[in-house]
Amino acid sequence: MLNLYTAVLGLLILFPLWGKVFFPYLWKDLAFLFTNIHLRIRLQKYMNRSPPFTLLEIFLTSVRKHPKKPLILFGEEVYSYQDIDKWSSQVARVFRGHAGLDQGQTVAVFLKNIPAYLWVWMGLEKIGCSMACINHNIRSKSLLHAVSSCEAKVLVTTPDFKDTIEDVLPTLKKEGVRVFYLSEESPTEGVDALLGQIKRSSSEPVPTSFRANVTARSTALYIFTSGTTGLPKAVVIDQKKLLMISTIFCMHGIHSEDITYNPLPLYHVTGLLVGFGGCVQTGSTCVLRSKFSATHYWDDCRRYNVSVIVYVGEIMRYLCNTPKKDNDRDHSVRIAVGNGVRVEVWKEFLHRFGPIEIKEMYGATEGNVGFINYIGKVGAVGRTNLLIKLTTPFEIIQYDIDQDEPVRDDKGLCIPVATGEKGLFVAKITGRAPFHGYAGERQKTEKKILRDVLKRGDCYFNSGDLLMQDHEGFLYFKDRVGDTFRWKGENVATSEVEITLASLEFIQDIIVYGVPVPGHEGKIGMAAIQLKEGLSFDGKKLYAHVKGYLPNYAIPHFIRIQAALELTGTYKYRKAHLVKEGYDPATINDPLFFLDDSEKCYVPMTQQIYNCIIEKKLKL
Fold first, then answer.
1. Which has more confidence, 26 or 56?
2. Quick one: which of 60, 153, 322, 406 has the fewest CB in 10 Å?
3. Helices (H), 127-247
4. Which CATH number do you get for residue 532?
């Protein structure tokens, strides 16, 4: 009997050691699993109510619970939960009365990061209307397309964008879109100023009958993405998906006493739904900044006693590139939530700014599956296991980069990659993981669906991303495929840039693609151009054209002139070899040009310019 007790005691002593060796992430896996299950049950419970218990209802619950608590800090301005509630009620009445909006209609919001963005959103929620979050960097044709694609009845902006609005106003009026400024006065004929009316409206609670038709499947938001091709596409975010994304803070133990620093654009999912929506979910406070500033970042965090930050990879890189200071670790930040940070930047960030928990995420705006690196494994975008695979089936399949299509076997089915190999990430479309696609873009929605993946008749969402899964179940982002690249935290659709540049009279054909730059996240724009016979390249004209029609992040910084653009056997332009060859004048015989802002021209690419870029001496 003594020997039995000794054996049992020995096993108990050894069990934790075996666990660390064979199941090193067991407890974190279980904790995340139980949290995830709890949140899913709560989400389903909320959505099964009639009417559903939406993010708005969570916000109103917080208003009743702590009305005076700050929700938004913006410079010297402080907006409590009660303040946002009152402002949003006033907005709701003006939109419903003066603008004549009905439930189910859409308002396009063309605003910078200002508190009004958030009380406009809550106001639209109160009357059952959708909000289309338009990137304020786009212009002309792209702006008109964004407004029309979601069938917006109203466009709300500020006089900051007077020139942009006046450029498209005749077309908007022709299409029946009413435009309003959130200001006391309007500098544009035909555009009303709404702020005075809003201030004079009642701030009493809005009747729930104004949103009586809202369901779990009602469209709450349109978030625009360049996706893989074409003009901006309006991704449909319904009430259920909105609530699900905004629970990400809850998954990380962020609570009501936390203060989140949010300099990300509110027209993006991370800025609006994770950064602000997460604060509403947890009943916490959001520090909103008009735009990111590396110089003021940590001073702001100290000033507001910030404990949570939201990021994209570019932010981390910019912060790591600032001059080192003695007080780099003098802050209260404990958690960072975001996506797109490279391994070397991740390591440098932790080494320099202290042991902050980095919660890297992965997921496309329109995607049906997402991942969270809740373990904190450096470089991973998420982690999977058998249970996740059962509830949200996905595959990583072989992909032919040159042909720009999945590899299929002799039966016409896709081929999963081996562990440790990169491939195209696809997620099965199911009732639990639906793909809503793009508003008014049936053809483009269909292009994101990959059929006959593992068996005939199945449907998967095509992420357009190359991922790799290691033997421990960690997922790593490797690259984007197809006709898109990412720069300055934005997706760039190459075809949109190609269409814009192709209108110049000296361009015969053009290929736009992204190329990597040392020390930078993502890829920067480059274009290979075939000139029309008898015409020469005009660097000044091209510079003025791209600056006038493209947002800065989409402008090609390098131009390569070719006698002819090479095609594949299926008559697609060959991009892979262009990306590999890059922009080094020492190895490329074709004429190369570089975008020089000081000269306001594309100037010949020299070895000196190239060396400055490689040595990170030239700001891009």
1. 56
2. 322
3. 140-149, 162-174, 195-200, 239-245
4. 3.30.300.30
